[in-house]
Design a protein that fits this description.
Layout lengths: L13 H4 L7 E7 L10 E6 L10 E6 L11 E2 L15 E5 L6 E5 L8 E6 L1 H8 L2 E8 L5 E7 L9 E4 L6 E4 L13 E4 L4 E4 L5 H4 L5 H5 L6 E6 L5 E6 L7 E6 L7 E6 L4 E7 L5 E8 L3 E4 L5 E2 L3 E6 L5 E6 L4 E6 L7 E7 L11 E4 L11 E2 L2 E2 L7 E3 L5 E5 L4 H7 L1 H6 L2 E7 L6 E3 L5 E2 L9 E2 L16
Antiparallel strand pairs: 1-2, 1-34, 2-3, 4-5, 5-6, 6-7, 8-9, 9-10, 10-11, 12-13, 13-14, 14-15, 16-17, 17-18, 18-19, 20-21, 20-26, 22-23, 23-24, 24-25, 27-28, 29-30, 30-31, 31-32, 31-33
Length: about 475
């Protein structure tokens, strides 16, 4: 590892990162696809410094050159995996478009408060060079290359492959996986080089999920339910961990941050479950369910049973707490994972969702016996939609939350959010014994954007965060 201290981007270790400076700005993509606004998606820069005169405001907007891209997740050209390399800088944000399959490279180094477009990779590059489309998760590699997981082929069928970009020119180099070895579906991935492993997850076939969720598509096999274990060095797919019905639609995957760790967690949307995956004494990998959020029997909704729909999860940098959002039920939960196999619920907060007490849905039966939550109003704005993307401050004390999942599903489940825009909220975290409470004085209202209400998605700090940095 590096003999110098802090010569490359990021931090020497996850615990060093926890001592990093407080976040002052965040970047997040804002989406207009599937809304009433015919404008390009854009990258918003938001001021989150409480001492700043522009606190809680969008201070810059970088529109993309095209319409209906569906910006979604973002990643870096360099992160803590390049910590030992003084030639590397974390100065480019990679913005793949989930639907158009374009990849934008944004210069955030020249002026972090006013990002500018650096390069655009056209979808044909992904189609012709890799046979892939619908790019999702970006991670930088210690080699200097950038890897992006994809969800489909150019025809909208499921295909879980990986595109490599050159870290200097951002040209498409080719596929990471070997020919014919792509997984049936793709979505997220995380690698752990000390154990020579990468694990990827599955959402569904892009053509099935593009315009909304149809439960019949699950029965037709158009959604995934497996984890794929890859050899990090040889790029071979070694194992498929079939999670079954309980593990249907495994989305965000998080290894523990400790690079020596041989375990982590994945949130499975459809049945509201979290699985722990781990290396066995034999040296292969296995998974076990460790959390289940029960569905509620309801009336006034599309189905008689409403799942919680776990859509985002993250782990604090000290590997002590796991957080996830239940996008249909409307709550965020915090678990103490000190005992890795037995997570303990220590915090919960409701922020909107489909179960609000004055809404059309009535809960008939709830295994957890929770009252239907009242609607949330922050600074006079009623929260439409539900907690979705999460980002934790480096020190673990502030959890930032946005409410949009994906425009096609937003439109189906939370049409009010399409009309009124999404929001960004902040939840205060008790890092001693656990506990979550809404910061009532923090709100970024994307319903008031100059071109009309926008859907804000995943959050990134310029200096890195606990969902984009990987340590070697």
């Amino acid at each position: 590892m590096a003999s110098c201290s802090g010569c490359g981007p990021g931090y020497r270790s996850p615990l060093d990162a926890m001592k990093g400076p407080r976040e002052q700005i965040v970047y997040l993509p804002c989406i207009y696809r599937n809304t009433d606004v015919l404008k390009p998606d854009y990258l918003a820069t938001v001021d989150v410094d409480p001492s700043s005169p522009t606190y809680c405001q969008v201070i810059h907007r970088l529109p993309m050159p095209n319409l209906r891209d569906e910006l979604h997740h973002s990643g870096w050209n360099a992160c803590s995996s390049c910590f030992g390399d003084a030639t590397k800088k974390r100065n480019r944000l990679i913005l793949p478009s989930l639907i158009s399959s374009r990849v934008y490279v944004v210069d955030v180094g020249t002026d972090p408060r006013q990002p500018r477009l650096h390069k655009m990779v056209e979808p044909t590059e992904l189609y012709w060079k890799c046979g892939l489309a619908n790019p999702h998760t970006t991670h930088c590699l210690g080699s200097g290359q950038i890897m992006i997981s994809c969800m489909g082929d150019p025809n909208g069928n499921g295909k879980g492959g990986f595109v490599l970009l050159d870290g200097e020119t951002f040209e498409v180099v080719g596929n990471w996986e070997h020919p014919g070895e792509a997984a049936p579906f793709g979505y997220d991935f995380w690698y752990q080089p000390r154990h020579n492993v990468m694990i990827s997850t599955e959402w569904g076939a892009p053509r099935a999920l593009a315009d909304g969720f149809n439960p019949a598509h699950v029965k037709q096999g158009q959604y995934g339910s497996a984890l794929h274990v890859w050899d990090w060095t040889s790029h071979r797919r070694l194992q498929t961990l079939e999670l079954g019905e309980e593990g249907a639609i495994p989305l965000e995957i998080r290894f523990l941050h400790d690079p020596d760790a041989t375990e982590g967690y994945v949130g499975c949307a459809l049945q509201g479950t979290v699985f722990r995956f781990y290396k066995t004494p034999k040296g292969d990998w296995a998974a076990e369910r460790v959390i289940k959020v029960p569905s509620k029997k309801v009336e006034g909704w599309m189905l008689p049973d409403m799942p919680s729909l776990i859509t985002d999860i993250l782990i604090s940098l000290d590997d002590r707490f796991l957080y996830f959002s239940n996008w249909l039920h409307g709550d965020i939960r915090q678990y103490d994972i000190t005992d890795r196999r037995n997570p303990r619920l220590v915090g919960q907060v409701f922020l909107g969702g489909s179960l609000v007490s004055d809404g059309p849905v009535r809960v008939l039966e709830d295994p957890e016996n929770q009252p239907q939550p009242p609607p949330r109003v922050i600074k006079g704005k009623r929260i439409r939609g539900s907690p979705q993307m999460l980002q934790l401050s480096l020190d673990g004390r502030r959890l930032y939350v946005t409410t949009s999942l994906y425009s096609g599903w937003d439109k189906q489940f939370y049409p009010d959010m399409i009309q009124e825009g999404s929001v960004m909220m902040q939840v205060d975290v008790d890092t001693l014994s656990g506990g979550l409470s809404l910061n009532e004085s923090f709100l970024v209202d994307f319903g008031k954007e100059p071109d009309g209400p926008a859907l804000a998605h995943e959050l990134r700090y310029p200096g890195g965060d606990c969902t984009s940095d990987i340590w070697l």
